[in-house]
Task: structure prediction
Amino acid sequence: MAIEAISVDSSEESRKLSKSQGYTFDLLSDPQAGVIRQFGVLHAQGGEGGRDIARPAEYLVDAGGTIRWRKLTDDVKVRARPEEVLRAIDSLPR
Amino acid sequence: MKRRRNILVGAGFAIVLVGLLSYIPLFALFPSTRDVPWVNLFLFLLGGGMIGIGLGRAHREPEVYRGKVSGAILAALSLLMAGFFCYGVFYAAKDLPISGGALRVGQPAPMFTLPNADGKPISQPELLKNHRAVLLIFYRGYW
Result:
């Protein structure tokens, strides 16, 4: 299973973040928020200086390209717990 | 007789300060104390209570305890800090756009290619060919 994190941060900014946190997964850069818009998770002008950013969201996509699970939060503090994600993954056909 | 320092006011203020400053570096790391910051709210109440009692003492026994003015200032500051925290945690944190337009379960996921932190293009179709599933985590960025 692959994990990809997406934000409007540039590759440069992502590299700094990844290094400081020791992430092993990819941080993908979507500076124009094109993919963010395609998924419908845009937070217009939600960033510093009125920048368009993503709202927090997690999507699980199966090998056929279908969305099988998603988690949107109403609250930036509340994120999907690891157990929830693992359950969703386990429910996918092998 | 020399008046005593008002320990309760000072300690109460320190506790309120800890309540404010400990959320992000400590309690926000654990979902049980992050989703509802009950520890921080408890610290505000505890610290606030101590300041209240301390101020009460300073007013009832001004010849014994100092701290009427400093106590009032620290009490006001504490209220400001607790108010700021509650605003951030209960209001600003929820200031997200309605997610009606977000893609739903069962819909096809858009395919895309985006550069990773090293500038290498990562293709979603390619990932899906080689993995059982892909978990996409959208985050705010600009940390």
Summary: Residues 7-94 of chain B form one domain. Chain B touches chain A through 48 residues (CB under 8 Å). The CA atoms of residues 4 and 65 of chain B lie 5 Å apart.
